[in-house]
User: What shape does this take?
Amino acid sequence: MFRQPTIFPLGKMLEMPDRCEHCGQKMEIEPGFYYGTGYVSYGLSIALTVFNLIWFALIFGIRFSDNSIFWFMGINVAIVLLLQPVMMRYARVIYLYIFVKYGSYEKEELSEPPHQHAPETQVV
Ligand SMILES: [Zn+2]
Assistant: This one.
């Protein structure tokens, strides 16, 4: 889905081809399509925070009587920031999953008149 197989270099990590190389699905369905992914990555950050809270509480314990809650917050912020680029990419993947039905592009093609497919032979 992305041009770079890893998140490095960071400056290019969100570059995507115009269309899927497998099925031809448009990647940027409309200008600004991915602005909404901010909400998805926000949700992922919250989920990650909950996950961190669970393992931190299990391993170190969280008490209000000492500084453990501050340790947790510091470590959690560090982990969330470190994983932010990864989550931004996952957010786009999830976003496409939400808005594009699998195989919908082929159906779109069939309904377009200029392509002149014979519909009865195009059993999906
Ligand atoms: Zn595809």
The pocket of zinc ion is lined by residues 20, 22-23, 25 (CB under 6 Å). The longest helix spans residues 68-99.
